[in-house]
UniProtKB/TrEMBL annotation:
It comes from Hyalangium minutum. It comes from the Bacteria. This is JAB domain-containing protein.
């Protein structure tokens, strides 16, 4: 996505990506009082944030193509391609860092989010080398506490398979603040523990 720009730091790139994703139509529906209407119009967008051979961070084209099971699960999804096609760089030189998407309802990462980034970790490197050091692969979900076309970026949730850490970043007056939520302990493919609480897929 050439008009996204090139960034020296992944945090600057995440900041820009959060604003861009949440500016898309119905990327945040937290302001809609009717739950049926919110469910119907909500949309989820996704993209890769990657590190390229120019030693900059870039974002792939956004997509809002769903996984196709929304009618059954009543959950919004976005099908993120496993790889990026950027003609500016050789395919082997692209290093995948963050799998980005938005949560229209503002909630935390789901079990399917965690499992999806683990699946990507079986395809891509768990940790990539950059000019500033090592950066681990992670799943990121942007959220806004406001809805509509003027939805602002209020933060994002992040899960890192390499460390199993689940964290939350919030933005206040242009400053980012990190909150450590806990470390995920997998019980089996359909359940995990976080801070001694068990979570299962439905």
């Amino acid at each position: 996505m050439e008009d996204f720009g090139r960034f020296d730091s992944f945090m600057d790139a995440l900041d820009k990506a959060c604003d861009l994703v949440l500016s898309k139509p119905h990327a945040s529906v937290v302001g809609i009082q009717d739950p049926e209407l919110a469910q119907r119009v909500a949309d989820e967008y996704c993209a890769w944030l990657y590190y390229a051979s120019d030693e900059k961070y870039h974002m792939s084209m956004l997509t809002n193509q769903s996984d196709g099971d929304e009618a059954l699960t009543r959950k919004k999804t976005c099908r993120l391609p496993a790889s990026v096609d950027d003609p500016r760089f050789p395919a082997w030189s692209i290093k995948y860092v963050f799998a980005l998407h938005n949560h229209p309802f503002g909630g935390p990462l789901s079990l399917s989010d965690l499992k999806r980034i683990i699946a990507f970790a079986n395809t891509h490197e768990w940790v990539v080398d950059t000019k500033d050091g090592k950066v681990p692969l992670a799943m990121v979900a942007f959220f806004s506490n406001s809805g509509g076309e003027g939805a602002r970026c209020d933060g994002f949730y992040q899960y890192t398979p390499e460390t199993r850490e689940l964290v939350k970043f919030t933005q206040t007056q242009g400053e980012w603040f990190r909150e450590d939520i806990g470390r995920v302990t997998w019980v089996d493919e359909k359940s995990y523990k976080l801070n001694e609480k068990l979570y299962r897929s439905r």
